């Protein structure tokens, strides 16, 4: 059964979010203001100008304050940042003031960064993901639907989160196996593939994306495909090892790039049909 999936295995962050929703009588927070939810938990949310920071939490003796950068361009990102801070509020009471930015609220950091930021950031992100995209509801919403970039976009709108957050959730819980490759400044920094994936990914840490990848088209030519063209066919050998007994024409692989111009980064969603 779907909900028995491996990826639903226990992790502290999402378990805490699930418990919190349940204790407060919510199935989800799709129609409930997140700042009100935070204040119900005892934190005051303030939007203000923040330098080099998307959000932060300040534990005082009596009051806890969550500050969110008012200049965050996308509402979905504001939501995720606030959910991340609520994660700290619930899970990490009393941690020192720290600033959250692209490097702590991103799923796709390189490994050294993850080690440095440690478990705390990982848990806060897992918490945020479950709070905003409850797993059971997510599974239900995507069930029986063919995987496509449009499906990810539809889910992102429904859950009011970024496509990146949805892509990560889909990787964990979606019906169709997908791989994720994150590239930053023309270097591949991180990738993920499902358990038991039948194709082997060549190690590209700190190397440029493959010459014939859609990600490279962005870095080299600034090419960003329109919605209708965002599903691009690629060769198996673009991202995977092609065995000598195999031919590229035997496979149907596709790449969909989620581009962040501001950070010069690309998340490539790669799948086989
Ligand atoms: Zn954080």
UniProtKB/TrEMBL annotation:
Residues 40-169 form the IrrE N-terminal-like domain. InterPro entries: IrrE_HExxH, Rad_response_metalloprotease. Pfam families: Peptidase_M78 (PF06114). It comes from the Bacteria. PANTHER family: ANTITOXIN HIGA1, BLL7220 PROTEIN. This is ImmA/IrrE family metallo-endopeptidase. It comes from Aquimarina rubra.
């Amino acid at each position: 059964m779907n909900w028995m999936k491996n990826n639903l295995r226990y992790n502290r962050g999402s378990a805490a979010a699930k418990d919190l929703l349940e204790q407060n009588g919510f199935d989800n927070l799709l129609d409930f203001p997140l700042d009100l939810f935070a204040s119900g938990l005892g934190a005051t949310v303030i939007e203000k100008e923040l330098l080099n920071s998307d959000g932060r939490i300040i534990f005082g003796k009596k009051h806890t304050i969550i500050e969110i950068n008012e200049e965050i361009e996308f509402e979905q990102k504001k939501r995720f940042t606030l959910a991340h801070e609520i994660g700290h509020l619930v899970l990490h009471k009393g941690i020192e003031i720290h600033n959250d930015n692209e490097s702590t609220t991103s799923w796709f950091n390189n490994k050294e960064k993850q080690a440095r930021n440690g478990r705390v950031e990982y848990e806060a992100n897992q918490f945020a993901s479950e709070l905003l995209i409850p797993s059971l509801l997510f599974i239900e919403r995507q069930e029986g639907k063919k995987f496509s970039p449009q499906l990810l976009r539809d889910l992102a709108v429904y859950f009011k989160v970024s496509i990146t957050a949805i892509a990560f959730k889909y990787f964990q819980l979606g019906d169709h196996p997908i791989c994720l490759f994150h590239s930053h400044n023309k270097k591949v920094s991180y990738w993920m593939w499902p358990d038991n994936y039948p194709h082997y990914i060549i190690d590209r840490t700190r190397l440029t994306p493959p010459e014939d990848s859609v990600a490279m088209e962005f870095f080299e030519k600034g090419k960003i495909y329109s919605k209708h063209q965002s599903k691009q066919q690629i060769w198996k050998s673009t991202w995977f090892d092609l065995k000598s007994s195999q031919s590229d024409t035997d496979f149907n692989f596709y790449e969909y790039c989620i581009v962040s111009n501001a950070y010069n980064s690309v998340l490539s969603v790669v799948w086989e049909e």
